[in-house]
Backbone:
């Protein structure tokens, strides 16, 4: 007995490897961005892995969170001819690393509460989140400008998405992209917490050192 056309599962869109690999080479692919591409990637992921493997890359897919991206494969323990890196390593300043760590912790707290799947923060909330960890600055406007610079860098890296500013003169809003969970893991947070503690101790000792110097 033949199945009715209405009962048959919908056919997946046809994509060749290039239409899937090229977007991945450009950045993160999100399920919410294009459901057709996402389902095609899931269906062809074995072929995509083989294809990018030749380029020294590995495909990472998080179906639960709905994103996929490429990373450089770990270097083998046995010495071999080096493969040029297609995905460049980007050194981060302490301030940008601080913002990423704080956003990751915010995401952990947000997920623990449950409910909405999107964490959205206003610019004012982001500024206040960071400024308490930075040394006091006599020029408040300059401090805010510096935080905005770091905020723009995090947007450029793809861990925040800027939404259109709401009407009425309110602060701009930013969505924390869930790809952050893949790049900032528990080990990274632990190591950064140690650096942050040392940094805060240094800030605490600075006024004391300045006072001692003035007494001499």
Residues:
């Amino acid at each position: 007995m033949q199945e009715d056309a209405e009962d048959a599962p919908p056919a997946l869109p046809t994509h060749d490897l290039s239409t899937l690999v090229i977007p991945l080479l450009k950045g993160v692919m999100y399920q919410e961005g294009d459901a057709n591409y996402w389902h095609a990637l899931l269906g062809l992921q074995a072929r995509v892995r083989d294809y990018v493997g030749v380029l020294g890359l590995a495909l990472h897919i998080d179906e639960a969170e709905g994103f996929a991206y490429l990373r450089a494969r770990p270097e083998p323990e046995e010495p071999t001819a080096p493969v040029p890196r297609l995905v460049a390593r980007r050194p981060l300043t302490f301030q940008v690393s601080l913002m990423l760590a704080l956003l990751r912790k915010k995401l952990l707290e947000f997920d623990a509460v449950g409910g909405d799947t999107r964490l959205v923060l206003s610019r004012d909330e982001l500024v206040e989140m960071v400024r308490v960890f930075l040394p006091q600055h006599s020029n408040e406007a300059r401090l805010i400008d510096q935080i905005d610079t770091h905020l723009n860098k995090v947007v450029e890296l793809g861990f925040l998405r800027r939404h259109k500013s709401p009407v009425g003169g309110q602060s701009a809003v930013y969505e924390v992209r869930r790809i952050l969970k893949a790049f900032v893991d528990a080990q990274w947070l632990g190591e950064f917490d140690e650096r942050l503690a040392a940094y805060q101790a240094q800030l605490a000792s600075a006024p004391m050192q300045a006072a001692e110097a003035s007494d001499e």
The chain is about 50% helix and 10% strand. The radius of gyration is 23 Å. The first helix runs from residue 17 to 26. Residues 1-5, 8-13, 207-216 have pLDDT under 50 and may be disordered.
